[in-house]
From TrEMBL:
Its EC number is 1.4.9.1. Residues 64-175 form the Methylamine/Aralkylamine dehydrogenase light chain C-terminal domain. This is Methylamine dehydrogenase (amicyanin). Heterotetramer of two light and two heavy chains. Methylamine dehydrogenase carries out the oxidation of methylamine. Electrons are passed from methylamine dehydrogenase to amicyanin. It comes from Benzoatithermus flavus. Keywords: Disulfide bond, Electron transport, Membrane, Oxidoreductase, Periplasm, Signal, Transmembrane, Transmembrane helix, Transport, TTQ. The chain crosses the membrane at residues 26-43. It comes from the Bacteria. Its main location: periplasm. InterPro entries: Amine_DH_Ltc (IPR016008), MADH/AADH_L_sf (IPR036560), MADH/AADH_Ltc_C_dom (IPR013504), MeN_DH_Ltc (IPR004229).
Length: 176
């Protein structure tokens, strides 16, 4: 008795679908579902967070916390350019006569003293000729130019009084 009611209900549903759709539309929808299912694994997946942490951990193995004029100072894992600590400023302040750019690129660095990851804003100091001292090239977590917030090859003097690059500072934003 229950099976008869179920059969009648399924037959009724099948007849309604058959009345409202054609074979071609059913085949078209089935084809779309199959192609869409096959394309789904090819969609891009953003895995940069893991990549940045892996790079930060690699830099952290050789990083130190005592000499801010050395390229392996822990804050410089993604720094690219002349260090302000060698140019009359500090690791987080521009030298006199230069201005901190209001824009910056970011990186994630691990402090080896407390083994904590920190977000670092790398600000270019602008307005004076290039310092020419302590040139460091850190590429940890760097992304291509189409991801400018993670690219350190761009001169980040946008919005500063002058677009002339002097040096780069590393300001801790907070814990990552």
């Amino acid at each position: 008795m229950i099976l008869d009611a179920f059969d009648r209900m399924m037959e009724s549903a099948a007849r309604r679908v058959a009345q409202r759709s054609s074979r071609r539309s059913v085949l078209a929808r089935l084809g779309t579902a199959l192609v869409g299912g096959a394309v789904l694994p090819m969609l891009p997946v953003d895995r940069t967070g893991r990549m940045k942490m892996a790079h930060a951990e690699a830099f952290a193995k050789t990083a130190q916390t005592t000499d801010p004029t050395a390229c392996n100072y822990w804050r410089y894992c993604s720094s690219d350019g002349y260090l302000c600590s060698c140019c009359g400023g500090t690791y987080n302040q521009c030298p006199p006569g230069s201005h901190a750019s209001p824009t910056s690129w970011i990186g994630t660095c691990i402090n080896p003293d407390d083994n904590t990851a920190y977000l670092i804003a790398y600000q270019d100091c602008c307005g004076k000729d290039s310092c020419g001292q302590c040139n460091c090239l850190g590429t940890e977590g760097e992304m291509p130019t189409y991801r400018p917030e993670l690219n350190n090859d761009i001169v980040w003097c946008f919005g500063a009084p002058s677009m002339v690059y002097h040096c780069s500072s590393a300001v801790v934003i907070g814990k990552a």
